[in-house]
Every structure is written in C-alpha cells, then in structure tokens.
Amino acid sequence: MDIENVNKACSAGASQGSTGVPGSVSSGRLHAFDGPAAAVLDHRGAVVRWTGTAEDLTGFRAEDVCGRPVRELVADLPDDDLRDAEMPASGRVRLWHQCGDTIDVTFRTTKVGGSGSAEILVLAAPTHHVTHHEQGAALLRALSAQSGITIAVHDTNLTTVQTNAAPGTLDGRPVQPGARLSDVLCAEDAENLEAVLRQVLETGAPVVRRNQQVSWRHDPMRRHALSLSAFRLEDTRGRPTGVAALYIDNAEQLRARRHLDLAREVAERVGESLDVVRTAQDLADVLAPAFGDLAAVDLAHSVFDGDEPSKQLGGGDMRNAALAPATGVWPAGIKRGESIPPLPDHPLLLSFLHGKPVVFGLDDFIAMVSDPQLVEYLVPRGAHSVLVAPLHARGLTLGAITAWRCGRSDPFTEDEADLMKQIASRGALAIDNARRYTREHRAAVALQQSLLPPATTDTPAAETAGLYLPADSGTGSSGDWYDAIALPSLRLALVAGDVVGHGMPASATMGRLRAAIQTLADLELEPDELLTRLADLIQRLAAEAPSGDGDIVGGTCLYAVYDPVTRRCTMASAGHPPPVLLRPDGTAEVVAISPGPPLTLSGMPYETTVIDVEPGSVLALYTDGLVERGDRDIGQGLRRLTEALAARCRPDRALDETGRALLADLADQAPRDDAALLLARTRAIPATDIAHWEIPADPTAASKAREWIARQFTMWGLDDLLFTTELIVSELVTNAVRYGRSPMDLRLIRHNVLVCEVTDSSSTQPRLRRARTTDEGGRGLFLVAQLGGRWGCRHGQNGKTIWSEQAIQGSPGSYGSPRWVAESP
Question: In what order do the strands lie in the sheet with 207-216?
Fold first, then answer.
C-alpha cells in the first residue's frame, strides 16, 4: 500500500462523519462502524495517521490520538509491556473506547512505504465481524466444493459474473463466468429460468427449492432435474446489484420420489380387479411410461384359467397378458394373447428362476439369444436396456414382467432392479389373488350351472329358453335360477328366483330351493300356497345354518303356472320383480302383480294373479341382475327390458337367440350380480282336442260316461285306448258320484298323452290303498294307477280334480314329459 494513499485515507477519515454499520463493545453499547479501521504508526509505535473508520471504531478523533503511542489504546497490556513489546504481525486485543468501554478487535500489521520507511499500517475490525466473515467464507468454500451444487452470481442483466463451475464443463454446470443461461441451456429452459431470476431481481422475494426440468444445448433430448434457490444482492444503500443462484442437482431426490410414487400407485391401482388379465394390464399401465418406455406382462397358460403353473416355468409355457402403452410399436414376437417363444438357456436366467430381476443391456440380450432373427422378432425398435422380473408369489412363479427402455432414456440400474423386485412381488400377489378367485368363481359357476335345468324345453304348453349370466365381480355367483316344470294336464310351471348371498353357499341354497319347488309343484299346489310352504322351508334352513349365518339364508321367487287349455297363467311373487308379457301383436307390458314378502318372512300371505295369455305370446321371467345396475333403478331397467323384448323377440326367431340378444343389450360388460332370464312362448290346446261332459248325480252316470267316451274316441280315432279309458273313467266317475258333491265334470284332453279328469266340489283327498280279499271296495284308484301311466289329485278353490294320463301310441314324449333339448345358455 502506498504511504501517500494512506495519508489521504487518514486525512479523509479525520474529516468525515461517523457513518456505517453498528459495531459493538463489551458493555453492549452500539457504535457505528463501516469496514476495517486503519491507522499508520511510526517506528516507535506512535500514531501518525488516523482514519475515519478508526474514529468510528474507537470514538477517538485523529487529533486525540495522533502523536501518541498506540499501546495507550490497548486495554489489556501490562504497563511494562507498553514499552518493551514489539508490534506483532496479527493478533487479537481489547481497545479502549472514548466512552470508557472496551472493544474486542482482531488486527493485522504490515510495513508500508519504501525500503527505508519504518512506518506500519494497522488494520483492525471487531472480532465478531471477522469471525462471521471467516465462517461465511468457509461456508462458501464448502458449498463451492460440492459436486452437485453450482453457485452463480448474475448481474442485473442476468449475465454470470462469478461461479464455482469449472471452465469447460457442462454436465451438471448451468453456466460459466461471462456467459448467459441461453449459452448452455435450451432456449425454452433458459427463458424459463431467466424469468424466475428476473422476478427475484425485481421483487426481492427469494425463490427456494424450485424444481426445474432443463436440457443442455448439446443434448436436448435428455431432461435433467435442477432445484433452484435464488435471492437478490443489494449494495449498502439497498439497491439491487444482481442475483445469487444455487443450482442443485435434484436427480437423485426426484428419482427417489418417483420410485415412491410408483410404489404407491402400484399399491393403489394393482389388485382392484379380480380378473387376471385386467390385473396384469393394470400392472403394465403403471410401469409404462413411468418406469420404462414399454412394459409387458406374460403369464403361464394355466394362470389364465385359475390353475397353478408348473414348478419349472420356462420359455414357451407363457403367453402375453398385457402390453403398455397400447399404442406402442411392439415387435412381431410380442402380441397380446399370443404365446411367448422359448429362449435359450443363459447363466443370467438362473437368477430369474430364483425370483430375482435380471437387467440386460442390448448387447447382453443379443448374446444370450444368439439368433439375429429371434432378436429382431423379440426386441422393440430402438431399445437399449431391458429389465425382466419374475412374478413370484406363494412359492409359485406365475410369469414375468418385462420393461424396455428405448431412445435416449437412461439404462436400468441395480437400484431400479430392486424397485422392480418390490413391484413384481406386489403385482404377483394381486395376480395370484385373481387367479385363485378365478378358480373359485369357475367352480361356483360350474356348480350353479349344473344345478340349473336344461337351457331349452319343448312342451305342449310352451317352448322355453333359459339363460344364466354369472357375475363378473369379486362376489361370485349369486344363486339366480330359472326353471320350467311340466305339470299334469299339459300345464307348465315357470320359475325365476334369486337367493341371498354369493358363491358356493348361494348355489347350494339355490339347489335346495329348486328341488323343493319341483317337489311342491308335483303336489299341484296353487302358486300362493307353494310360496308359503317355500317360505317355511327357508325358515328351517335359516334355523339349521351356523350361528350368525341365519340372516343370509333367504331369497325371492316368482312362480307361475300356465294352462294351455284355459289359456290362463296363474302367478304369485315372493318379493320378485314382475314378469313381462309380449303379446302376438308386438305390444309388451309389465304384468301387474302384487308381490308378497321375500321368502325370509314366514307366515305372511301371498296374492295370486291370473291373466289371460294368447297363444304365441312370450312371457319373460328374470332376476334383478338383469334390470338393476349402478346407473339405473329397477323402473328404468324394466322399461329397457320391455322395449328390448318388443324389439328383439320375433315369431320367426329362436327363443334362445332372442335371449342372448337381450342379455347383450341389458347386461353390463362386467356385471356385478348374476342375471337369469327365462323366455316362454305359449301354445294352446285346440278346442277339437278337448271334450267336456257334466256328470249327473245318478248311479247310472258311469255307464253314460262310457257311452259318451266311446263316441268321442271314435271321432278321435283312439279305439285302442277305449277299453282302458272306460275302466278308468268308470272308477273315477263312480267315486265322484258316491263320495263327491255336485257339480261334477268329466274332461278329456288329447295331445301326446290322453288326460282324463274328473272334477267335483268335495275337498276330500282320495287315497290309494291295498284292499283286502274280503273288502267290497277300495280297488278303484289301484286300477286307475295300474291302467294309466300316472295319476294324481289337485285341489282348487271350488273342489278337487282327479286325473289320469295314458300314452298315445305314435306321439312324442310320454306321460306329459317335455322333450328336453340340452343346450348351453
């Protein structure tokens, strides 16, 4: 430092006022201080120059100290040291302040002037200022030494004036001194960053940890993650002088965050469905493009059907279950639903067989395959890295996940292989859950369908077609069923029902109810009485159920009986939706019935509804799974069913084809509840095949009935049945005259069987018994049973009817049994 400049500084300091930042003294009093204090000493240690900053520091003016030894200002030196001690090069002392306090300062000395001068320049500053400065400098050096942190100071034009970036390096370093952001970054990224820095410069509001995605100009295809923190720089008057920015490489943090987000998304999305293919597709959709550019899930052939895969799963044993993205360009060897070609053995595949992911570079994969045509057949275009992870769950290898990276994306790392292992483990459990559900669902549906009647029937009363659509949700089959039961006198019972619960218990309950209905139908009960007895059965089943399961035994049922002779249908409902009737003229309507309580409530009455049905009409019985869904109520569903039935059902179209069309129109693609549909196209017995005669209350009624039958059989050409029919009618008429009450009727019905019916007003139940040798009666019903194919008795509101059936030679069927046509629904 030049002595003349020091003199000027000292003179200026002696004349200027005390301005600057506050200093502090030992007593805590504040003093103004701006920069280090400077003084010049002669060879004896006397003060010869005293600057304004020295006056600010000590409070003494230049005229107070110039010419005096500087040691007099030192507070902690002994008296004898004031004369003998030499001025050290640096140190720390306590100085007296003009107010009587002391100041802790750190100083440094240096000789000034020519070689012959002995003057000494002393620079001093409060110790705490020096300490803060040193700590700040150390912090700055530490930050500058961090490889992932770039510190840059930009001027008001956002030109870089200072940075810790090494010259000539770009990777990880945004800018160099004298450059602008646009010299290093892509134009759009540079513009975005400069907008942030300009906002900090204008407002003074700092930006802390703002995440930015940038690309270098020399590599625009790859994106890099930066965390930007910036604050404004100001001079002593508060005017902005630039912006200090910290650019932190945020790739690891963002990668860790992406991995956490990916694992969370796998946990949230994969496993929502219990369908194997849907679960595999969800897994692939999560991985691509978030983890890899392309992702495929391949499963063992048996997994699709719910069965366990083989213990040694290898190439050729799997087929593709899912690809993502769906619009991706896949090679010819990877197609949805097709088998995966076998791969040759390779040492790296051993880790895969042990449940560990395998990472291949393109060269390694080509070397493993060792077949250029197979490589072209299997490797996506532009791929450079592949990660394969086995789907391993509960000791079974279900398949594999394959993720590909293409283009400029980074190759897979071992850390990402560990992440894939976790994802594959969770995905494998979800797929295995879906596989096990598929197996159980398939068994439940098989049980359900085995308990259902044949799909189509053809009887004198009607032709029918039944269809059953199992649920596609996680609930399993719901126990919906239908039935068509041939009854005596050519009548037909139509049934539709739905039991409470799902799965095999519901199917078992359905089977028990169907068997009970068939038994009760053989008793020829009226629909309301049959449902009453069925409700009693439900109560017994609920009582037999394990503790806590009694409330899940129940259901609804619709029971209808169609008589082709009277052309009437009698029906009753136990909480079941009403049937839909399509008339021959094409009009369709919902039958107005009064549904009773569900079968879970015993002891409640049911109401019978009777409607006239024209021949060629179609009755549609169904379960609520066909008309109820999430976006519509049962009223809307009934309207849709009525409209669809009117549009789809035509006389020239087979009923089973119509039923399939209705299910396609009305059922969801993935129904949450079972749906059963029974269609019955009614027929009528011609009046020429029916003969009716009123029986007089006369002992000669039997002989008159035989005469009447003989004339009728001559008209019908049934002379071969005349003898047996006369015996049967004689016994039935005799019993009616002897034990019954008027009015009494005899009716003959000719179809594939000959039906003889005798009706009287008595409710007495006839009983078949074995007569002893000495008995004079009791053999009539025994003869009827022996001569006819079958016989029975049914009760109505005004009496009872005893009937007998005989087969007619050359007619199809026997004793009123339908011609069952076994078809799949």
Answer: 160-163, 149-154, 240-249, 219-234, 207-216
On the 0-12 / 13-18 / 19+ scale of CB atoms within 10 A, 116 is exposed
Residue 770 is encoded by which pair of tokens?
Answer: 């074995």
Q: Chain centroid to CA 107: how far? A: 73
Please choose, from the candidates 393, 383, 379, 380, the residue with its C-alpha nearest in 3D space to the C-alpha of residue 421: 393
Each residue of 50-71: pLDDT tens digit?
A: 988 888 888 898 888 898 888 8
Which helix (H) or strand (E) covers residue 689, if one does? none
Give me the phi and psi of 678, to 5 degrees please. -125, 120
Helix (H) or strand (E) holding 512: helix 503-522
Q: What is the pLDDT of residues 710-757, one digit of tens each?
A: 999 999 999 889 999 888 888 888 888 888 888 899 999 999 899 999
Residue 769: CB atoms within 10 A of its CB come to 11
Cis peptide preceding 309, ω within 30 of 0: no
How far apart CA 69 and CA 93 sit, in angstroms, is: 15
The SS3 assignment for 320 reads strand
**Across the beta sheet with 47-50, what order do the strands follow?**
47-50, 37-41, 120-126, 102-111, 90-96
Do 689 and 751 form a contact (C-beta atoms < 8 A)?
Answer: yes
Edge-first strand listing for the sheet containing 555-563: 480-486, 492-499, 555-563, 568-574, 609-612
Helix (H) or strand (E) holding 613: none
Write the DSSP string, 118-180.
--EEEEEEEHHHHHHHHHHHHHHHHHHH-TTEEEEEE-TT--EEEE-PPTT--TT----TT--
pTM attached to this predicted model: 0.61
pLDDT of 430 above 90: yes
Tell me the β-bridge partners of 619.
581, 680
